[in-house]
Amino acid sequence: MTKERKHFTPEEKVAILRRHLADKVPVSELCEELGLRPTVFYRPAEETVRERRRRFSVSGASPNRVRYTRTGDDIVATKSVPPHY
Fold this sequence. Notes:
With 85 residues, this protein is α+β, with helices and mostly antiparallel strands.
């Protein structure tokens, strides 16, 4: 007998991660409650980290040459141009 696969909306995934990160609910407790394996739990967290890195990276710039500027609710990454001597 096979189990039916669970599908979570992006909002549900964020709520689950928030319970773990902000409310300090252990992964084992969340997995048991939701019927998930720990590897399935960590997958959305890894995807979130990859997405954030992609959003905040500037291609071709080294980390020490990236400038982050806050505009309203957004953070924009721009290349810093080294001074010419």
